[in-house]
Amino acid sequence: xxxxxxxxxxxxxxxxxxxxxxxxxxxxxxxxxxxxxxxxxxxxxxxxxxxxxxxxxxxxxxxxxxxxxxxxxxxxxxxxxxxxxxxxxxxxxxxxxxxxxxxxxxxxxxxxxxxxxxxxxxxxxxxxxxxxxxxxxxxxxxxxxxxxxxxxxxxxxxxxxxxxxxxxxxxxxxxxxxxxxxxxxxxxxxxxxxxxxxxxxxxxxxxxxxxxxxxxxxxxxxxxxxxxxxxxxxxxxxxxxxxxxxxxxxxxxxxxxxxxxxxxxxxxxxxxxxxxxxxxxxxxxxxxxxxxxxxxxxxxxxxxxxxxxxxxxxxxxxxxxxxxxxxxxxxxxxxxxxxxxxxxxxxxxxxxxxxxxxxxxxxxxxxxxxxxxxxxxxxxxxxxxxxxxxxxxxxxxxxxxxxxxxxxxxxxxxxxxxxxxxxxxxxxxxxxxxxxxxxxxxxxxxxxxxxxxxxxxxxxxxxxxxxxxxxxxxxxxxxxxxxxxxxxxxxxxxxxx
Amino acid sequence: xxxxxxxxxxxxxxxxxxxxxxxxxxxxxxxxxxxxxxxxxxxxxxxxxxxxxxxxxxxxxxxxxxxxxxxxxxxxxxxxxxxxxxxxxxxxxxxxxxxxxxxxxxxxxxxxxxxxxxxxxxxxxxxxxxxxxxxxxxxxxxxxxxxxxxxxxxxxxxxxxxxxxxxxxxxxxxxxxxxxxxxxxxxxxxxxxxxxxxxxxxxxxxxxxxxxxxxxxxxxxxxxxxxxxxxxxxxxxxxxxxxxxxxxxxxxxxxxxxxxxxxxxxxxxxxxxxxxxxxxxxxxxxxxxxxxxxxxxxxxxxxxxxxxxxxxxxxxxxxxxxxxxxxxxxxxxxxxxxxxxxxxxxxxxxxxxxxxxxxxxxxxxxxxxxxxxxxxxxxxxxxxxxxxxxxxxxxxxxxxxxxxxxxxxxxxxxxxxxxxxxxxxxxxxxxxxxxxxxxxxxxxxxxxxxxxxxxxxxxxxxxxxxxxxxxxxxxxxxxxxxxxxxxxxxxxxxxxx
Lengths: 497, 497
Description:
Two copies of one chain form a homodimer. Chain A contains 13 helices and 27 strands.
């Protein structure tokens, strides 16, 4: 039987495998605060790479970063709550602003006149500012973004995927016309798609949510949906067209070029640290994480073999020289990120550590390699025992091609997995129901739907939702997979995270 | 009388001038939440530049970024509080995790078993993790950093300088030896100095705090102290050697190479959004902000003059071409950040806007310039009416030199101001007291001090503190400026922010 670096395989128990990878790759851990995680250096470095890529695209599309307070007055939430039913109410509430000592214990003191909520999202806070900042059509479009933390009290937390506190960006824009706001919504979904597919190598399906799955108060919610290796879908980014709903609640008005006062059209869109979870469940294997090169904090790790003390110095120098040469090469318009691991551990142990952490290329370099001008490389997109000896010069010369091949390979694997887990041949509810009741065989079902909201009730017992109405529509007619009625809408169903 | 872009001059009222600059440069504003600010795009872009520079140096010195929860269990605070008296207790306390509707109002519900505090700083949280992560000397040094928000309830908030919520980085490290931890403390203070002087062009004095001014629980606190134009000092970064105090409270122990169990030595160090305030008060003038080029979000702004519709297209094209040429040049190892302002406003209005925002170089380009191959430039380090015509090619060729001259000029001005506001000729308490009682004439006093903590009491009524014992010591003997006793320690006194 083949041994794997992760104690439990994906097949044995996917949920446990996931937690094991998070632990073994040293990405994050639970803190003493229920539902809140500590993101450890390797996990945070991955998040920083995702963040940088996303931030570049957010800026390139004309958005400006700002920062709004983490506290939202309860009255502002109230305003939206009056407007939007279904507003999530599981939030952290600040009621006091002092601790005092009482009988040797610290207890809350100095109650606030009115409680504050830790932002679950900032539409209310930012809407209030927009109302102050916007008075004329010349102030529009107003396109801003914020990086920060947000809190939604989670009853069933799961590292990266559902945490009480999470890190994210939330974009908020206001426009003079409906058309422009809708275009913005689509543009930002494309940005998410580019980060997911281009950088993270996660294939996604873009589409619109049904009314029942919309962000509360939105006129339309768009999302990218990814397929995980256990057959569950994961929403990897959402973009909301809010119409005039939030601008009416927050009084965001402007004078148009004819001097008429109008409500602005607003949008909001966000992506969070759950993307790290998506990457693990898309690319991970039974040896741990596999990182797409654009996201990997180190793209190459070099392990000098220094068992022979006489040769140690020259081997270490050679490893450093190789690292410097690699750092002079470019991949995806950035210098190659190379690291020499000099810790006092056995090479085998270090190799396994980096395999579990998902580094795309691991190079081992010993005294014999030095003489031969070679290194032994392990490609993380291939099985772990498939090591190769390669000349140092060819390695340096071809490192960009190798990384390119690796990211192509990861995307290819993920695409094949997504396709294998997409059924397009299920046309009636009996088959649909059997499919989703069979735990072994979950995934996407792409089938016709009538568009009747009432029919979605049939999905509840199956634990299935409509993930989206994909933009890509066949235009054919058929029968609704839920009701058997005539239907034309190609619709994506799945269980989801 | 000369007119200025800021409605109130520094001389008339420095505090009001400061707020006016923040408003006119569109850096930040108060939010509806007491003490919490909204950082607007220009202010946030400045912060991002400071942050990037600091982050680079933090990483270059071997620290890894992480993220710890924003919530700290009250029990952890209690642990420190037991250990450290004088722990600040003005904090935001979360007591509930739900809002429910009652009589049409949202009210807190679902009380927590035990309240949570929003982090005022993360020693407690990170100490607990360190205790779990460290078991052997091989795990040391452990050097991490966190970027995030923190909250300390402020009774007298002031934009950027003192806000209830602020953004910052907090570094936390653990070491096997006292020497190594002390070295780390000094290294990080040097990093702050490099960012302050090298990038922000703010001259600072590095030194150690007296015991009464230490971070609660620290064995030593080191700081960089800057002088503002109103004669008040501003602490621009602090680095604490925590000895074994926090490791004893949090139980951070390791087995040394002899197999003996020891407590680790820890450090912490932080710098925050108040640095933006320091920059305003160091470099600003009566026309607004003056930004050092390494920090300026745009280093050059180009204003095309398009009054003549027939020439508009060619002027705009030329402006864009100039911007692209400038962006091909490098300053301080980065492409020059150039921006063409195409908004429909008068050139005069746009020029004043960028002057107030502090852009180092403003270029105006009209049809006549186009023919002559010139632009008209305004250098923000000079008086506003000192405009110059310069050839486009020489401008592109010398832009790095110009920016270098500007940053040199800003640093020179700031250094001259700091020196003019430093008195080294005050030797007895009568003169000392007169000096600080005269509101017009505040600044640094560098004088001898005996080192007797009791003597600091004499400073309280004057509103003065010992800012630091500078590292640079003359080694001479003299008389203590507070007590008249023999004294050798050169000491820096000032009123402060």
